[in-house]
Amino acid sequence: MADAKKLFIKTYGCQMNVYDSERMAEALGTSGYVTTDRPDDADMILLNTCHIREKAAEKVYSELGRMKAFKAARPEVKIAVAGCVAQAEGAEIMRRQPAVDLVVGPQSYHRLPALEAETAKGNTALDTDFPEEDKFEHMPARPKARRAPAAFLTVQEGCDKFCAFCVVPYTRGAEVSRPVDRVLREARDLVERGVREITLLGQNVNAYHGVGEDGKDWGLARLIRKLAEIDGLARIRFTTSHTNDMEDDLIAAHGDCDKLMPYLHLPVQSGSDKILKLMNRKHTAAEYLSVIARIRAARPDILLSGDFIVGFPGETEEDFQDTLALVRAVNYGQAYSFKYSSRPGTPAAERALVDPSEADDRLQRLQALLSEQQKAAQLAMVGRIVNVLFEKPGRLEGQMVGKSDHLHAVHVYAPEVSRGEIRQVRITSSSSNSLAGELI
């Protein structure tokens, strides 16, 4: 397309933002845009932002300061901001950075073609509403290009939990689940285009309650079992979940649905009941551990992942020791840990902070324990035979890289293997964040 306009997207944050960026690119494709990986070559620069990390808004403003240089060189270039910072900051982004032409929240990106048309007239465009219509149903049909072997599929958005540290209920809105038939339609389309593994996404994905084929609300387990009937779909995963929504049928699915992979990311944030209450998590450490025990009873070889916040307002050394005790009790195969940082507008933002040096020290001790557990989990894989979905060539000649059932990255010398193949591999060694093996 000689007259195609070029779109550069920079994506921050979670897998849902990766999915959203793909859909925004497709939406703008109807306006004549094709993607580029060079901002200096783009006709539109779009930042798809995340509000989870510390000082997220300031980082966006800093990035916009760099991007406006491209607009200074070519005034026709459009600059757009999407995602959760766009939702939270709204018109303030345009006020602080006049180079921005378009701001769109995560619930309105199906309106991008119309908003882009406004910028083409020389106007600015702002849409941070929570529209009643289903944005997914208003997206353009996907082009039938081949896809990577693994793909994300959003099935649920928003959250009703209102954890004291989290901005998601304010930037993504209340929990909304997509109807089953629309999820199945998109999943079948992905499989037709070469996808072998689908990860179901949601801010609180196991709260899924989409309307099913029988007119009743289906839970996530029933949706997974229906997806498992799709020929050609080999693997199913889901993230991110809440302890209080790990219902019996979903736990059972880990044991009786072969296509549901033995990996679960289940954040807990703290092992202290006092801190969990201050966080408004609505469960205790014992209740979390009970859920873990039931999951392991259903699928003994499952690899567990979690999220932790240290230095939450009010946390003492005793509370932190409770967190370490919980980590030892669970024995995670992978986990993410962060020092608390306040988010404007959240209840915890008004509370006194833990001494930063103490929070830093706790984070280092927690990460050391988590790293030790991850290393042990990977070393335990050495000598085992695992199934690997190969996704891309590696850095070395003839090398292919894929993911095991347990979501470990696996490097194999396999010049004869194609992307999308699932092959048995004997694990021969472990490094810091990946495994190496040989084809069986």
Main β sheet profile: 6 strands, parallel
Taking Cα atoms only, what radius of gyration do you get, to the nearest Å? 22 Å
Instruction: Please identify which CATH superfamily of the largest domain we are dealing with.
Output: Methylthiotransferase, N-terminal domain
**Shape verdict:** globular
Average pLDDT, to the nearest integer?
92
Question: What amount of the residues lies in strands?
Answer: 15-25%
Count the helices. How many?
13
Q: Kindly state the number of beta strands.
A: 21
Strand neighbour order, sheet with most strands? 2-1-3-4-5-6
Q: Determine the CATH topology of the largest domain.
A: Rossmann fold
Structural class: alpha/beta
Through-space gap between termini: 44 Å
The low-pLDDT segments are none
Helix content, binned percent:
25-40%
CATH architecture of the largest domain: 3-Layer(aba) Sandwich
Number of domains: 4
The top level CATH class name of the largest domain = Alpha Beta
What would you say this structure looks like, in words?
33% of the residues lie in helices and 23% in strands. It has 440 residues and is an alpha/beta fold. The chain has four domains: 5-127, 3-Layer(aba) Sandwich (Rossmann fold), CATH 3.40.50.12160; 144-260, Transcription Regulator spoIIAA; 262-380, 2-Layer Sandwich (Transcription Regulator spoIIAA), CATH 3.30.750.200; 385-439, OB fold (Dihydrolipoamide Acetyltransferase, E2P), CATH 2.40.50.140. The chain has a six-stranded parallel β-sheet, sandwiched between helices. The radius of gyration is 22 Å and the shape is globular. It starts with a strand and ends with a strand.
